[in-house]
Protein 1
Amino acid sequence: MNFKWWPIRRFVQLGIVTLIASPLFGLTIFHGNLSAGELFGINLSDPFAFLQATAASKVFIASFLASAVLVTGIYFMLGGRTFCSWVCPVYLLTEWADRLRSRFGTGGRTFSLSGVRWSFSATIIICVLTGVPLFEILSPIGITTRAVMFKAWQPLLLILSLVTIEISIARRVWCRSLCPVGGFYSFLGRISPLRVAFAHHLCTQCGECTKVCPVEEVLEPPLTTHKPQVTSGDCTRCGDCIDICPTQALGVDIWYK
Ligand code: SF4
Ligand code: SF4
């Protein structure tokens, strides 16, 4: 039996959701949220949240810097948008929405992957101009975390709307084209050494990998020009293409080629 990545990834995703929800059950392993939290006494700051706070306050918050650098270093080694497919609860939600969309045969429009980088830039500019870390208020992760922590359920309607749009109109629109956090990590993913490897001599061009990939454009360069790795920062390192490939033409590289 071939090794599969998806059970491990699902275990990690559900583990993160459990950690976020743990205060509801009186557990104190994890405090905070994915923007700024404390796990086993270690402070972890999301670098994008740090950038927003710095841009909004125009004050360099040195106390957050070390943990933001630590988290940035971890995601650099792990591939950048690894955050999206292994950690972010919204990605998990949109994966399930995509399955429902496939089952119903609805929607399916896609928009440009560069949208996440425009969204990242626009968010930072808005933070500078308004002095408000806007995305911390509006992000689905923030809304979900506050819903769990403070039982503020009404804003969850925004997330329900997003899921409805993903099922009925546009496939994976949040993660592909709107999320500024994904935009930030896509910059990191471009230079990360952890990449999907491609052995073109094993590939039969069956196209199964592009069917399961949430950002299928990233597989075009290897498939069409035989590049030995997926180099796009938009690859979420989810491993779905590796799992589905019938000829093991795809794998994991831990260094540049
Ligand atoms: S699934 Fe594997 S064999 Fe099929 S096109 Fe993708 S890399 Fe090639
Ligand atoms: S190329 Fe493979 S690992 Fe990267 S996002 Fe697509 S399916 Fe996931």
Protein 2
Amino acid sequence: MHSNKEMVKMGVLETGGVIQYSKGLEGVIAALSSISAIDGAQGKLIYRGIPIEMLAKYSTYEETAYLLLYGELPTKNALDEFTVLMRELRHIPPKVEMCITELPPNPHPMDILKVAVAHSGLYDPDQYRCCREGVMRKVIRIIAQIPTMIAYYHRARTGQEIVPPNPELGHAANFLYMLHGKEPDEEEARIFDIAMILHAEHGLNASTFAAMVTASTLSDINSAIVSAIGTLKGPLHGGANERVLKMLDEIGTPDRAEEYVLNALKEKRRIMGFGHRVYKTYDPRARILKEYAEYLSKKYNDTKWIEMGEKIEEIMIREVGKKGIFPNVDFYSGIVYQFLGIPRDLFTPVFTMARSVGWAAHVCEYTQNNRIFRPRAYYTGPDYVEYVPIEQRR
Ligand SMILES: CC(C)(COP(=O)(O)OP(=O)(O)OC[C@H]1O[C@@H](n2cnc3c(N)ncnc32)[C@H](O)[C@@H]1OP(=O)(O)O)[C@@H](O)C(=O)NCCC(=O)NCCS
């Protein structure tokens, strides 16, 4: 390990003093933003100042998307225009449709989404526009097209006819329609819409940060979204929701939850859907999703999943609540999605479909006053190593 003085000599630090290092960038402020704020101690989340609970109660995904992108709630006219635009832009280019529907059925749909978003960027009529309207259209086009990409791939891989977007339906209802080939009932469409609102934005999480890093090089928005999709896919981030259901399958019945959780904790295995870098209390989004998971369980008279979920929650809070580990957004979302007939491997793509607006809002905000992201690493290697010619190496 080198001293600070040695590091300065080696050009690693420009000045002496205390070396700042935060593993995983914990607690580091990397940008100024007026998009959302999380109070991790109180378990509060606001989008542009509005509490998430109010948006879940009164707003729609389209209105929330407008709020996140433009900074304020739309007037009636502005929302109407935005909604029309979102609906017009849902269609994906024919070549992208052909590519999606011909891709093999086995890759994870998140990998298909990376390909599809990258591919559709090639046909974006606003590809080379860098004016604000051009960028906004590009952004709204991606947000509008992602649900179509997911639904088309799913229909094709299951040997079903693709169902084109229905301009009469809102963003959430239209996705369920394209996925299932029939209009969802109003209540289910609304619950899905609320889930989309709750997943739309969450500060500088890993995928948003990945999008911002890509955009900060002045690359294009499609590249930024592709970076974000690849990042969201991981099990420590958006991929956790799918794994929660896998865990519930493994547990099987509520009476086996205690043994499973205690063993997992003893073996230092993570319980998916718990813990968060910022929340050290109950994630407010999980609280709302839990209510809908309970509601749908009663509606369909199928309470096994929610009973297991609630049992796990009780044990986790009892065992590790003092360490600040509570349910996060991914814990109950899977149960909700399952009741809405969404296949498990589409849970993370559905998260993508909601979060694309948060990614886009941060990219637009950051690049308006851009500075390339370029952190440093603390060098821990040897000071000097002699170069050994290959014939002398052993
Ligand atoms: C979200 C997450 C990656 C945050 O990680 P982080 O801020 O880096 O926290 P750490 O990995 O440093 O964990 C801190 C402590 O809590 C424990 N912990 C964190 N999440 C845990 C979980 N889900 N199950 C069991 N223990 C957990 C860690 O083992 C560690 O314990 P230790 O201090 O005794 O070693 C982490 O909580 C996790 O892996 N959760 C499961 C995946 C998940 O649900 N992701 C979705 C997030 S929205």
